[in-house]
């Protein structure tokens, strides 16, 4: 993969790793450090060698094993639960049900509507009913299976459109949130009108490692839970409330996180673990099977979208009308926030004078939905980009040109009434991918058949293959929204020239631990920087979502490091009779403005212990009002992707040949890490576009495993070519950087669908794309 960057002024930035020019002196390669360098991850070697400790690797003396009994039904009334057979089994130490929860019996990240254990009604397939602790994992599983539950089956509500008229599935009702957005003149019309109905499937985060954890009781009657939490302080507070304990008696210790593209850990997994440890007085370990992982954690919201776009004869948008219905599954989780993003971004990164959007999130008996990268924004991007393709076809216009006539820029208004104050180089991004060189066509020879859709030995006739080129332009918000108090705290401590960063920001793969090292290296000029393990004894840093740790936690680390630098420089400045601003720290040296004084950072730090704690809190936001209006978002990030696909119109197979990406990143903090994040996001988007859909029938999940759920593999990953990274710094963000991984996830499915439309001439209004959408073109 290759990429170039541009600065705000439009000049080309140096490409990392470029060869020296003619006549340059060959010097020993310097160890990369600081902002802008490709600093390797501190845990890279351990993960590569297989020695990195994950939650599933944990052990404790006197360990017991846990198993959870889950509902085999999507909707049923529980008439009785008999645990006596399980309790009599040799080796079983405890069985807990709803009756054994000492504190709050329900929990939830936003709305406490989810029972710790189902006790009167089960509302989705796989809902926990009881948990067992035993001296062997097989004993625990057998004991869980021995629990007898008598059910009265109830009709499952699986169609979100039926949820409005269906009997309440929950005491809070079936409607979680309704957002009407009204912007402009409802009577406005355009000369050209196109309509579309779009369906987005249920994508699973499918983490590399299934959920696992270890709970250890404490002498004070509390408990410590070792798990791969992505928001340890929130998990601690939820657990403490359910355990009937004060928060300071529950400690969450974050272990290695084996991949996270959503809320990596669900409290519904941690709570039975902690209850069993408290009940038995012994350490208890729980390692979920892949099936339990699929049934237990949340997924991307399946969404139904109806759109009507109005445009004038020149292709300029006049009005967008939309209805968005999100299937939340049995419980609320983050559905209200996901709906807000979907409604706010329903028109995309385009200027729309008039917009009228209705959004609903409803409960059903389907698997639970929650936070997955780009939630809300991904679903609407697939729909509004489908509408732009329809408009382009109706107007006889090139798709890229139509988009360019309507793109947002800094200073424009969103349909929520919020002014786009951050850099928004959408036109520059779109032109970059449009003007990029196209990949060569495949050769029609037997040796090159692997280039055709279907792969080796599986392709049809080359004459049935059609190539298509399509575009996607997407946007996401960064940090929390609608009044969320975004704050993070960090401490930087330097002892004898060795720095340690203490911050409860969980590195779920986004590279925060590496970024924190780079920030301290940049500000203090030290080489050796470590990050302390994360637990809830540290001040909160918030969840690992929406790229917030790059901004909020990175900002806190930067401020703390600058305070330490001031402590270091003040005595020197006083002796020299100048202010600290006249001393520069760079490349491991401290130098005065006039060059008269110079010393190494190592010498200045020798024998000293310096530390400082700082917070970062971005400017506040506000909830959307009754008309969907308000300054709900802190910052925005944008991406444009051109997809090139080959489609076999007889077999319906699709091969993504190349995805050309242009993205506004604010500032490249770590080129290699940024490249990897974009590539990973694009690949996840390809899965949503072509293969990933957790299917259910009557609310029952079919094939909850990695055989039935088709993840893209390395053989499916397309060529990802980053053609441009726009470094137009956001002045309110630390170092001006923007979140990098969510927006390519959002944009990729829309771009792939657009390219398949171009290849087949079919509408392609469903994700993942079904083979029938392409096969039908052969007979049309």
TrEMBL record:
Domain Aldehyde oxidase/xanthine dehydrogenase a/b hammerhead: from-to ranges: 49-155
InterPro entries named in the record: Ald_Oxase/Xan_DH_a/b, Ald_Oxase/Xan_DH_a/b_sf, Ald_Oxase/xanthine_DH-like, AldOxase/xan_DH_MoCoBD1, AldOxase/xan_DH_MoCoBD2, AldOxase/xan_DH_Mopterin-bd_sf
SUPFAM superfamilies for this protein: CO dehydrogenase molybdoprotein N-domain-like, Molybdenum cofactor-binding domain
Pfam family, one: MoCoBD_2
Organism superkingdom: Bacteria
Region (Disordered): 1-30, 437-462
Designated name of the protein: Xanthine dehydrogenase family protein molybdopterin-binding subunit
């Amino acid at each position: 993969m290759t990429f170039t960057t541009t600065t705000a002024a439009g000049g080309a930035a140096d490409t990392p790793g470029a060869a020296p020019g003619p006549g340059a002196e060959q010097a020993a390669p310097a160890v990369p450090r600081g902002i802008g360098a490709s600093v390797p991850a501190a845990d890279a070697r351990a993960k590569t060698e297989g020695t990195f400790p994950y939650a599933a690797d944990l052990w404790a003396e006197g360990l017991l094993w846990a198993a959870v009994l889950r509902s085999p039904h999507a909707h049923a009334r529980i008439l009785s639960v008999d645990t006596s057979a399980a309790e009599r089994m040799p080796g079983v130490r405890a069985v807990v049900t709803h009756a054994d929860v000492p504190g709050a019996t329900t929990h939830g990240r936003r709305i406490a509507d989810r029972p710790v254990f189902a006790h009167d009604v089960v509302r989705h397939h796989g809902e926990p009913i009881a948990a067992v602790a035993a001296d062997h994992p097989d004993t625990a599983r057998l004991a869980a299976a021995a629990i007898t539950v008598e059910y009265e089956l109830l009709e499952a509500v699986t169609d979100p459109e039926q949820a409005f008229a269906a009997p309440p599935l929950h005491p809070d009702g079936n409607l979680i949130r309704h957002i009407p957005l009204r912007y402009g003149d409802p009577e406005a019309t355009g000369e050209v009108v196109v309509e579309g109905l779009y369906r987005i499937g249920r994508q699973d985060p499918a983490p590399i490692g299934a959920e696992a954890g270890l709970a250890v009781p404490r002498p004070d009657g509390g408990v410590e839970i070792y798990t791969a939490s992505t928001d340890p302080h929130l998990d601690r507070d939820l657990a403490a409330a359910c355990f009937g304990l004060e928060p300071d008696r529950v400690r969450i210790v974050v272990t290695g996180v084996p991949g996270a593209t959503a809320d990596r850990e669900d409290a519904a997994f941690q709570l039975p673990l902690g209850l069993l440890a408290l009940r038995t007085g012994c350490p208890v370990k729980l390692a979920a099977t892949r099936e339990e992982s699929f049934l237990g954690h949340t997924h991307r919201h399946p969404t139904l979208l109806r759109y009507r776009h109005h445009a004038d004869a020149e292709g300029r948008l006049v009005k967008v009308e939309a209805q968005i219905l999100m299937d939340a599954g049995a419980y609320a989780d983050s559905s209200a926030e996901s709906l807000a993003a979907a409604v706010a971004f329903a028109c995309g990164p385009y200027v729309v004078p008039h917009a009228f959007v209705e959004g609903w999130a409803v409960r059903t008996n389907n698997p639970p939905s929650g936070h997955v990268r780009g939630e809300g924004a991904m679903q609407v991007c697939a729909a509004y980009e489908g509408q732009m393709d329809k408009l382009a076809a109706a107007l006889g216009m090139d798709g890229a040109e139509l988009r360019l006539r309507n793109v947002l820029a800094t200073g424009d208004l969103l349909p929520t009434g919020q002014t786009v104050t951050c850099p928004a180089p959408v036109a520059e991004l779109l032109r970059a991918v449009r003007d990029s060189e196209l990949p060569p066509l495949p050769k029609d020879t037997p040796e090159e058949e692997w280039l055709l859709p279907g792969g080796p030995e599986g392709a049809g006739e080359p004459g049935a293959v059609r190539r298509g080129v399509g575009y996607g332009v997407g946007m996401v918000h960064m940090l929390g929204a609608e009044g969320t108090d975004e704050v993070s705290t960090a401490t930087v401590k330097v002892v004898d020239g060795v720095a340690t960063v203490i911050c409860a920001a969980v590195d779920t793969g986004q590279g925060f631990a590496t970024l924190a090292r780079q920030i301290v290296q940049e500000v203090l000029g030290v080489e050796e920087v470590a990050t302390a393990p994360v637990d809830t004894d540290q001040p909160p840093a918030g969840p690992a979502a929406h790229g917030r740790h790059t901004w909020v936690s990175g900002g806190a680390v930067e401020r703390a490091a600058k305070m330490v630098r001031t402590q270091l420089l003040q005595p020197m400045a006083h002796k020299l009779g100048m202010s600290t601003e006249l001393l520069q720290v760079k490349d491991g040296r401290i130098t005065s403005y006039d060059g008269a004084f110079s010393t190494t950072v190592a010498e200045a730090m020798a024998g000293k212990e310096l530390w400082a704690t700082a917070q970062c809190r971005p400017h506040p936001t506000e909830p959307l009002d009754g008309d969907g209006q308000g300054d709900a978002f802190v910052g925005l990030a944008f991406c444009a992707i051109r997809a090139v696909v080959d489609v076999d119109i007889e077999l319906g197979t699709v091969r993504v040949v190349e995805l050309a990406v242009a993205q506004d990143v604010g500032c490249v903090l770590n080129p290699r890490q940024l490249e990897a994040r974009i590539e990973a996001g694009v690949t996840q988007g390809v899965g949503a576009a072509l293969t990933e859909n957790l299917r259910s029938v009557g609310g029952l999940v079919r094939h909850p495993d990695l055989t039935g759920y088709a993840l893209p593999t390395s053989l499916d990953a397309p060529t990802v070519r980053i053609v441009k990274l726009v470094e137009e710094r956001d002045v309110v963000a630390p170092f001006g950087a923007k979140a990098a991984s969510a927006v390519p996830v959002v944009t990729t499915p829309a771009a792939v669908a657009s390219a398949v439309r171009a290849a087949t001439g079919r509408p392609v209004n469903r994700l993942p794309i079904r083979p029938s959408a392409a096969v039908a073109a052969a007979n049309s």
